[in-house]
């Protein structure tokens, strides 16, 4: 049995094919057309795996662009797919923190990866990947360099809650001669504080898994650990958790058919 999951996010589109043993994976920028991105990344993962589209028994789409594709057998919300993917990647997870390009989610889950409760911020860029990208741009660095630049640095607390004001604040700090690394450490702390307040609303948890593209940034993970006072696990395929969850749900539907 062959199944597939596609997660069409605001920044990146992820596709996986699952043959019951292995996941074949592909990631590509979403760009201006979620539909085109989904088709392109799906073709990419099919090429890599050596399977044809006709061989796929069931395809589940998720992510903000999930409704824009017409070749999925089913569309499922991101919350459900991320929960399922995180529970698979880190068995025993009881809380998932997912930070993507345009939103952040905190999901309380059961051992089987069922959603028990969740909180989502999709109204404000602060506390999302977009916030990190805007500030990285103001600092003239790439998001992929943020972790290394801030490692071991003392955070400078950023007072602005809004992305636009935080950008001005950071430019002001640079003008005062402050170190980029300290500003970035403060940026990570600011994201972690926002997420920690969402986590606190979910009640006690001890096995936290961090997913989404922002989980690649080790600096955000360590700041989260400091804010929460507990370890935070980041699986290798953190950015693919939603697509993996979608493929596992596709597998369930396909087995029932
Ligand atoms: P979405 O699913 O909403 O499209 P992702 O989960 O792919 O978003 O996350 C995108 C975010 O991940 C970017 O805004 C960026 O902040 C962060 N990111 C992506 N790649 C990297 C990287 N190599 N290093 C650090 N951060 C990254």
Question: What's the layout of helices and strands?
Answer:
Layout: E1 3-8, E2 12-18, E3 23-29, H1 34-49, E4 58-62, E5 74-75, H2 78-89, E6 95-99, E7 104-109, E8 115-121, H3 129-139, H4 146-150, H5 163-175, H6 180-201, E9 208-211, H7 218-228, E10 232-233, H8 241-256
Parallel strand pairs: 1-4, 4-5, 6-9, 9-10
Antiparallel strand pairs: 1-2, 2-3, 6-7, 7-8
Helix pairs in contact: 2-8, 3-5, 3-6, 6-7
Bound molecules: adenosine-5'-diphosphate.
Residues 9-12, 30, 100-102, 129-130, 132-133, 143-144, 212-214, 216-217, 239 line the site of adenosine-5'-diphosphate.
Give a description of the structure.
Helix content is 41%, strand content 20%. The chain has two domains: 3-81 and 240-256, 2-Layer Sandwich (Nucleotidyltransferase, domain 5); 92-234, Nucleotidyltransferase, domain 5 (2-Layer Sandwich), CATH 3.30.420. The strands form two sheets. The protein has a five-stranded mixed beta sheet with strand order 3-2-1-4-5. It has a five-stranded mixed beta sheet with strand order 8-7-6-9-10. It has helices at 34-49, 78-89, 129-139, 146-150, 163-175, 180-201, 218-228, 241-256, and strands at residues 3-8, 12-18, 23-29, 58-62, 74-75, 95-99, 104-109, 115-121, 208-211, 232-233. The chain starts with a strand and ends with a helix. It is α/β, with parallel strands linked by helices and 257 residues long. Bound molecules: adenosine-5'-diphosphate. Adenosine-5'-diphosphate is lined by residues 9-12, 30, 100-102, 129-130, 132-133, 143-144, 212-214, 216-217, 239. Residues 9-12, 30, 100-102, 129-130, 132-133, 143-144, 212-214, 216-217, 239 line the site of adenosine-5'-diphosphate.
